[in-house]
Amino acid sequence: MKKILFALIVGILALSHAPSFAQQKSSLHAHVHGQAQLQLAIDESQAVLSFSSPLDNFLGFERAPKDEAEQEKVKQLLLQLQNPLLWIELSPAAQCQAGQIKLDSPVITGKQKTNDEKKHGDLRFDLELQCKNPQHLRSLKAKLLQQYKGIHRLKVEVVHAGGQHAKTLQADEINMTW
Ligand SMILES: [Zn+2]
């Protein structure tokens, strides 16, 4: 009987660990406080910037705001998101302009249904960029690492016709070239 119980517990443990392990395998969807991910896909005339971070990095919480001070934090974050190119500066010579932003974050868009304290929440968005000279899009400067102390590491992936590049940036190293 003891043996069966043990096997059962091991089985349950293995199951409960499965989702977090799967999450860690995909670098773009890992939810690790202090870390954020950025992917830049460069096409012939346009580029798409995809960003993902635990909300905790920006707000210090990941559920719907509880009071005025927290509401103010969310408001400020939404204001900042009106121009993400102030967070991520791209090669000026490329002359990229931010187009539509697709924001996926129920907590800050007010669509959060539950207020479970234990639930994690992300800030995710895709931003379309129109670039006059996409061939000159050869570098980025992750200024948000200095603007938001909650982000310690930003994993960046750049995909373009010439190949794929990856680098982890930190507050004392915010530049990446490819
Ligand atoms: Zn979290």
From TrEMBL:
It comes from the Bacteria. Pfam families: ZrgA. The keyword Signal applies. Keywords: Signal. Residues 1-22 form the signal peptide. This is DUF2796 domain-containing protein. It comes from Undibacterium seohonense.
